[in-house]
């Protein structure tokens, strides 16, 4: 019975960490995209 509880708890924790990682990567992607847009705008202004 202890093994089953540990397995369920481990699965829930892994799911939570997976969702947190997806959220983090999504935020990172948005930050990189925003930085790229600013760089592109700056390059256009300084032609």
Automatic annotation (TrEMBL):
InterPro entries: Entericidin. Residues 1-20 form the signal peptide. The keyword Cell membrane applies. It comes from the Bacteria. Keywords: Cell membrane, Lipoprotein, Membrane, Palmitate, Signal. It holds the Pfam family Entericidin. Belongs to the EcnA/EcnB lipoprotein family. This is Entericidin A/B family lipoprotein. It comes from Thermithiobacillus plumbiphilus.
């Amino acid at each position: 019975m202890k093994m089953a509880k540990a397995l369920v708890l481990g699965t829930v924790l892994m799911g939570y960490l997976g969702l947190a990682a997806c959220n983090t990567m999504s935020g990172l992607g948005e930050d990189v995209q925003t930085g790229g847009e600013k760089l592109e705008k700056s390059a256009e202004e300084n032609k």
